[in-house]
Amino acid sequence: MMIATEEIWRATSHFLGWFYFLCWSFSFYPQAIKNFRRNSTVGLAVDFPFSNILGFTAYSVSTAVFLYSPTIRSQYAFRHPISQVPSVRFNDFAFALHGAILSIITYSQFFPLIWGFQVGRNQRSSWVFRGIVTGSIAGVFGVILIVLILSKDGGNDPLGWAWIDVIYAVGFVKVLVTVVKYCPQVWVNYQRKSTVGWSMGQILLDFAGGITSILQMVVDSSLDADWSGITGNPVKFALGNVSMIFDIIFIVQHYILYPSRTEKDLADEDDSEAGEREPLLNA
Are 197 and 1 spatial neighbours (Cβ–Cβ below 8 Å)? Predict the structure, then answer.
């Protein structure tokens, strides 16, 4: 009976994993489709897809290495002797790679030479986010240097600085991006007193994905009787929680604070600012 129950819960974990994968993966499409239908990116903060490229590229690297690198998996097993297999799943990697590709596509929509969409004059990546991208990359290379200099065994000794620490650094880049990437959009919605141009479809899918992602980690850790499945994979845990917090903020903005603002309501405002608009040459 216990074996049958365990199989049910493992099947539940598998289902939750693919369910959140589908929710989070499909969540990339509503915004790109919305931009295409409106023939415009006005209302969307450019820093969102810009930072997503870095975040999901980092997440792709992190999940791929945890899945397929014997060195990293052995170092993880050494540091987590009770539960020696990382809680990363193939659907994590598939989601990350898919997200990176869709983020590049959405960001490319800010270039009129590619899509011909209407782009606001101020829709340029900010110096703050350019600094975050540059600093994140520099930080990862800094950890690589630390491993090369301080490691006693070329990064292969898990007791000290090891290559797994580099992968953790890459993973935390994704956490950093997730924490900050929504802030510009919250501010844009606040300034315009509207969520027009920002797809709520992606937010609802993202919220559902966050819930099921956390549930999968709880189920997996419970089955292994070891909660290091969460502490050993802080990136996935943080992604689910941080995303849901911002999803709630956007839901409040859309359905409670600015529910009456429509595309037509903002048309006159956008027209009045037409003189401030120009093709975006350097997003």
Answer: no
The pTM of this model reads 0.81
Whether 223 is in a domain gets the answer yes
Task: Work out the number of other CB atoms within 10 angstroms of the CB of residue 21.
Answer: 23
Is residue 168 in a domain?
yes
Q: What pLDDT is stored for residue 248 in this prediction?
A: 95
Q: Which long-range contacts (CB under 8 A, 24 or more apart) does 249-256 make?
A: 249/182, 249/186, 250/182, 250/185, 250/186, 250/189, 250/195, 250/198, 250/200, 250/203, 251/200, 251/203, 251/204, 251/207, 253/186, 253/189, 253/190, 253/195, 254/195, 254/198, 254/200, 254/203
Domain that holds residue 26: 2-276
Q: What is the mean pLDDT of the chain?
A: 85
Q: How many domains does the chain have?
A: 1
Is residue 133 situated within a structural domain? yes
The residues with which 118 forms a beta bridge, in sequence order, are 40
Q: What is the pLDDT of residues 114-167, one digit of tens each?
A: 999 999 888 888 999 999 999 999 999 999 999 999 887 888 888 889 999 999
Q: Is residue 281 part of a domain?
A: no
